[in-house]
Specification:
Helix content is 21%, strand content 32%. By secondary structure, it is α+β, with helices and mostly antiparallel strands. It has an eleven-stranded mixed sheet. Helix 1 (17-27) packs parallel to helix 3 and helix 2 runs antiparallel to helix 4. The longest helix is centred in the first third of the chain and has 13 residues, at 77-89.
Length: 300
């Protein structure tokens, strides 16, 4: 975070889920957000000495289909920083409300495995407010350190959709072709996603309430993007390097209940490196083949 100007705000504890969503609901009222604001809060929100709740970690591993062990899955720290990201997103000075914002991309850099026994220090800030053809997007940068050692870093890109002057993008037409044979299939239903909402703290109504989902234009509740990002890793677990970059782009949402195809293709040369850990990953619709998620795993 060198070169950033602003205040480091030290939090005493993780922001509570109910408090964050109450702030989000209040921030959606039309008179709350400053009109025409085009800048981001300069604050960095910080939390020190966070300890892993092993029961929560075990529940996360079960619902995502991952192993429960002595180190954290590379996506699990998202759940640790998410409450602080939400607190920043729901600040009154933030230029758009949290409700209606869409998580469109996520990039994780794990510099080394994180032990479940290590105390963690978290820092979150927002940057790079910029236009998008469908609205405005912004990056939330989350860093996790052990002492002075940076061990995990994430850039989560959120989009607030609104009318713009950009020309409309042509609609993508997905040919009705039989998708290739997948590595495996995943079945996901509301019960599983409700469990994920509980362990991750992400109780957005589009994931847990059919009425809430329909209010935002979805035909029914949808799976969390970061559940998908975690679940697809089960196909290559045990073949992921210690230091890795995991880049994810979210496609069409997974409307519940659903079956999705899992694809994992080794990158040329990865097997010869002895790890088999360079991968192109995807979750696709089993009938039409369009992507719910595309991702890459690359050694750092």
């Amino acid at each position: 975070m060198a070169g950033r100007k602003g205040t480091v705000v030290q939090l005493r504890e993780q922001p509570g889920t109910l408090d964050n969503y109450a702030r989000a609901a209040f921030g959606a009222l039309p008179f709350v957000k400053p009109s025409g604001r085009r800048s981001l809060p300069k604050d960095t929100l910080s939390l020190s000495g966070l300890r892993i709740d092993t029961d929560n970690l075990a529940a996360y591993a079960r619902v995502c289909g991952l192993r429960f062990g002595d180190t954290l899955p590379i996506t699990y720290p998202f759940t640790l920083v998410f409450p602080t990201v939400m607190r920043l997103l729901t600040e009154r000075e933030f230029p758009f409300p949290a409700i209606g914002s869409v998580h469109i991309e996520n990039v994780i850099e794990q510099l080394r495995p994180i032990s479940v026994s290590e105390p963690l220090d978290i820092a979150v800030h927002a940057e790079n407010l910029r236009p998008h053809p469908k609205g405005t997007q912004v990056d939330f940068v989350s860093e996790i350190s052990v002492g002075r050692e940076l061990v995990w870093r994430q850039v989560s890109t959120f989009l607030k959709m609104h009318p713009t002057d950009a020309p409309k993008e042509p609609k993508q037409v997905h040919a009705d072709e039989v998708p290739p044979r997948p590595m495996r299939t995943l079945r996901v239903d509301q019960k599983a996603i409700s469990r994920y909402a509980a362990v991750s703290g992400d109780r957005n109504p589009i994931h847990v309430s059919s009425l809430g989902a329909k209010a935002f234009g979805f035909p029914g509740t949808i799976a969390h993007g970061m559940w998908s990002a975690a679940a697809v890793l089960g196909a290559v677990e045990g073949r992921i390097p210690d230091a890795v970059t995991y880049s994810v782009k979210f496609g069409k949402p997974v409307v519940l209940p659903a079956t999705v195809n899992v694809y994992a293709d080794a990158v040329a040369g990865a097997e010869s490196a002895g790890t088999g850990s360079g991968w192109d990953l995807a979750l696709r619709n089993p009938k039409k083949g369009y992507p719910h998620l595309t991702a890459t795993l690359r050694p750092l």
